[in-house]
Amino acid sequence: MTAVDTTDSLHVTTADPSTFYPGRFAGRVILVTGAAGGLGSAAVDRLIHEGASVVCTDVVGDGDGTGRDIAALDVTDRAAWDETLARVLATHGRLDGALFAHGIQGPETTITAMPFEGWSKTMSVNLDGCFHGLAALLPTLTEQGYGRVAILSSISAREGNPFQAAYSASKAAVVSLVKTAAKEVATHNVTVNAIAPSMMHTRMLDDLSPERNAALLARVPMGRVGSTAEFAALATWLLSTEASYVTGQTLDLSGGRNTA
Fold it and tell me: Belongs to which family (predicted)?
């Protein structure tokens, strides 16, 4: 039994190259974390199609099966962030933006049964990993007077998913972190925003039980899982010059899931 039905009945949207905007990121250098994952990889593909020089990172380096080089970056290690930034500037001479697409699901259990080790690791990757990234990159972006940062949150940040306390809490904290960072750098032409997907067609669905997947899908009015192409479309817009007056926001990518 698979974790969730991903057949054509869910009408998963696929990437259409004709919707790309060639040259939109010409001359721009974008850093992507979680670049080997489903969401990060899709965003990297679109950024490259649109002319960006993309620096791909993930917790494990080397290739991702596509011939793309991925540098190792432990997002929970501030020194590793500083070293990564130094390499980017030495190689490209600039950095124009970043997509933080890293994250882990964490334990699927009640709060009372939550192992602290699982709670702590989830917070460390999902929240601390974004904090360290912002602390490392924002000085460069503000100094040059331009920058775009997009961070992966979750629809669970708005309402909390039962049996996912660590994940939900970490993603809610990311929303608050984004608002704070955005206000601190707003006068420097640097924007910081978050994306809150509901269910996305990635391997992370396999980390949840079939029952949990079914329960979550039942709350999506469109009745389907979102595609990585749909995530990439929103992420790349937030990373573009077009999103110049949007900052401190968390944009839902949820198929109509209502958190009210």
Answer: Belongs to the short-chain dehydrogenases/reductases (SDR) family.
Burial per residue of 248-258, b for 16 or more beta-carbon CB atoms within 10 angstroms, e otherwise: bbbbbbbbebe
Q: Give tens-digit pLDDT for 102-120.
A: 999 999 999 999 999 999 9
Q: What is the pTM of this model?
A: 0.89
Question: Which of 21, 146, 167, 245 is an active site residue?
Answer: 167
Q: In this structure, is residue 203 part of a structural domain? A: no
CATH number at residue 50: 3.40.50.720
Please report whether residue 207 resides in a domain: no
**192 vs 228: CA distance, rounded Å:** 21
Classify strands 69-72 and 53-58 as parallel, antiparallel or unpaired.
parallel
- Reading phi first (left if > 0) and then psi (alpha if -120 to 50, else beta), residue 27 is in left
E strands in 165-253: 190-197, 250-253
Q: Which amino acid is at 168?
A: S
What is the count of structural domains for the chain?
A: 1
Determine whether 21 is an active site residue: no
Domain holding 191, by residue range, is: 22-198+228-249
> Is 235 a domain residue?
yes
Domain-embedded: residue 210: no
Cβ–Cβ under 8 Å, residues 250 and 196? yes
Q: Say if CB 250 and CB 178 are below 8 A apart.
A: yes
